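Instructor's aside before we start: the two examples that follow are unrelated to each other. I chose them only because their records fit on one page, so don't look for a connection. First example below.
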Amino acid sequence: MKNRGVVSGCACCRMNRRRFLAAGCAACAGTAGLLVSPGESWATGAAGGKMKIRVIYALHAAQQPGPDWPNKGFDFRPVMERINMGLAQQCPNFEFVSSLAAGPEQAQKILDEDKSANSGGYLVYQMNAWNRVVQTIATSGKPVLYADFQYGGSGGFLVYMADFIRKKAPNVGFVASSRLEDLVEAVQCFARVQKGGSAADFVAATAQVRVKNTPQTGDLNCKPDPVKVLSTQECLARMKQSKILAVTTEAGPTSTLMGIPVEHMSFVEVNEAWKAADKDESRAVANRWRKNAATVIGVSQETLDTSAAMYLGMKAVLKKHGANAITINCLGGFYGGHIHAYPCLGFHELCNEGLIGACECDVRSTATMVALTTLTQGRPGYISDPVIDTTKRQIIYAHCVASNKVFGPQGPTNPFAIMTHSEDRQGASLRSVLPLGYMTTTVEFEQGRKEVLFHRGKAVANDPDDRACRTKLAAEPVGDIEKLFTLWDQWGWHRVTCYGDLKEPVFALADALGYKVVEEA
């Protein structure tokens, strides 16, 4: 999932805080102060000189109306209730007031209402990924604690927080933890301001708390995994012999990326190939998927058949154009009626075969996958939307498709489950339960800046959380997890991960391309 705006027709844009209270988030009033209506003083109900903190949830609506992280129909009210209750119970020295905001206009309205209130600071909770709320709140100059609702707001949180870090925002601290206790301890840092400290003192305190609660580096010794890599020159030569098909609404001129030809084509040809796929062959592929899967959850035989036809159609288009990689604007194509099956399972199958199937028409990540698969003689890259959890010292690579042959087409397989696409609970996608104990390498090649973004991590867990994308490989990063927060605004959300310690060959490939390696951890 890439950077997306607010779902159109968002009910939250029209929801005032009284209507939200009526909608059922009783704990927002009962356990965390009051949901204040426009025109009411925030000071109402203040007792004992408690510092007032407004909690602002940045999200589309209390119950999600459309496809996005965490998923369509997700009910945020119990989550907000748990947060509000936890803050009220564990931070009795503060008075909390809760609000919703879908974007800048609502955020500005909140600031305007607070001008006459003796407010102390803000907690902005990024619940959906791309709602731009914290930027407006930060202009208040008051201390702001920015928190990530993981597998909900993580993309925006990482990108927006990296921008604050780059600009040295003096009043924005952050917490990126799955533990409520870490949030509570960060909130307690508002006491620095209550005792006469500055917003900068508050930010420094949140950083100290975050670092204190992040575990020390664990055992980074990994299972043996010798990787047979091509020489740099042979890799470059084979990359030039590759071809990427980039499928979106309209065809365009051929371009090159890292020496790889990129042919821009419309959905029409892929959709026609899907229609033309042999029904018996499609059923055979679908049945093989069903047989090999550890489980199939919520996906009908008809959906499996159409997904298999999409795989066969994509493979026919690759053959016709002499290409070995395809990336499709899958969500836009499916929601726009340009294609009629998700390509997720087809991408999975192509990657298992040593070809490249890549999500969301992300050409840069696709070229990165071509480079890695070529360099490693068949190991697939895995595009993901990462999440960082400091309390576990983990980066979690999340997406709705992955290979289950991470060591290459001739290597062993790992279990997988067939499930719906997570964000909209439609179609067919895949949860790959990826092998643990191995070193992984995560990169992005950026031709425009002539840079390679690079970090490594030891695969330590597969997170089965039902929110957000289906496959969630958790890794402990090699290096400084704090540094890992700093570059998302420059590089965007996607990363490509490959099994193996590829530091030396990636650095050598970068050098041959004339690229600088940027180590993000």
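Example two begins here.
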Amino acid sequence: MSWKKKYDIIVVGAGHAGCEAASAAANLGSSVLLITMNMMTMAQMSCNPSIGGIAKGQIVREIDALGGFTGIITDKTTIQFRMLNKSKGPAMWSPRAQNDRIRFSEDWRLQLENTKNIDFWQDNVTSITTLNQKVAGVNTSLGMEFSAKAVILTNGTFLNGIIHIGENHFGGGRIGEKASVGLTENLISLGFDSGRMKTGTPVRVDGRSLNFSKMVEQKGDEQPQCFSFLDKAEPKKQKSCYLTHTNSEVHDILRKGFDKSPLFTGRISGRGPRYCPSIEDKIDRFAGKDKHQLFIEPEGWNTVEYYVNGFSSSLPEEIQFEALEKVPGFENARFFRPGYAIEYDYFPPFQLNFTLETKVIENLYFAGQINGTTGYEEAAGQGIMAGINAHLKIIGKQPLILSRSQAYIGVLIDDLITKGTEEPYRMFTSRAEYRILLRQDNADLRLTPLSYELGLASKGRMDKVREKYEKINRIIEQLKLEGVTPEEINPVLYSQNTPGILQKTKISAILLRPQISIFDLIHGIPAFSIFLDNLGEISEEELEGAEIAVKYENYIEKEHEIVGKLARFEDIQLHPDFNYTELKSLSFEAREKLTKIKPGTIGQASRISGVSPADISALVVYIGR
């Protein structure tokens, strides 16, 4: 049966990528149909009930700055907030929230249902339809055919998903939910390459049966912050997480099940996440370690269910339970369900353009785990970009492509398309070469003006950004303009174990000292405090922004210089039909990689693994001729 209405965009899958893609496209004005296999699990937190973390928190701030909703919904459902890496420089600060799993999904559904231009359909998409190598719509298991100008696939772990628990295995995209069958085969028939990946999730336990007195309590920040730059909804109360450890007895019990582990017997062919391995993988790879950390995390305000972070496993359930009972605090644990591994199809991302549109089929977009990534945040970041670019493409406007110096999202997409991935890709701060420019605190300054130009960010949001940075710049000017005498500031300096000054000194020079924060200056210099009062209401975020700008001014300027020098390579275009095989001055590996990936610029070509500086020089000389 053919559905009468023709949509601008169809989004397949209502996970974190699909929700952001649908809301972005709809809010920009496209008519959207969101198709999901289960309306009750939109934006489901399939693994740990948290958002953010190292580098991931920066991505969420960027999504928010672009006009997405992950940050807003996170703030509404937060049960604990922590700013990670505060002992390090601001480039490393990363917000992380523990969330109420059920409320997070509910709030996302409410958000989508209250967004005009979005329709919903519960079904399984089995194939896409095309006309002259251009997407035309989708077909479903119920025999429905929907037409659209563009389609965004965000299928998560559901494509031919297989769940493994010990020697048992069965089809599924999540425990209790069936796999999606047919779409992979359809895409392969259209010319796409596919592969297999693996991920896993831990045991869930009854918190009433745990002895938390044997664990280390981990409370949230005393002054919790928010993810969203727009809506401030700091949690009024917080729930604690807890830390415990495995031990040699736990490891010995787990080893008993290795001969039945699908990970070691070869039943799992897909590559798993290197940086989030299963407990059996950790024991095998780090045989010399006699203990591993386990973080015990609550699943919500009104549930006794706890998530055992660090104990992902596909071992037989009886082995998992027997081993966990030897962990301090778990002696009388009652279990809700075992951990399991899931294997699923993905499509190597070298088959995409920077807009996340596929190279094989026009107006078909991939976002999320279908591209080989892992994590809610990475998926949501791709989702909002796919939604924006699908809308821009069908209305004939230029795409939004974020560079590596503009956003972690830009780093993520560039890494995927330029370098590819053979294991689940996870974002880290170390992947970004311009970390001091891509801080979590300045994501709104970097990206909201772009979103405002597109029409996604509201005028109110843009006005708020302008007001914030006007205040920050006025504070910076005052810090650089005003001086302070030894009599005024030395008591503050001595209290922070740093030497006093002998003559009047600019306040900004005092702030350069690592022991001194802007809050010390507020309390120690009455004139500076009065100046701030005259500015009106000043947030802690604005004060920290001014402090970072002053303390790290030289580092920030240096990174801007490097970006400028490398920008010329990004401006040298390469034609998609460039015949690299005929350019014999290139190495064989470079010819092979460049032909496969088809980089758009010299800058992208320079980041491809296996393409040397000598190869780049040869390309530049050839183009110059």
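The mean pLDDT is 93.
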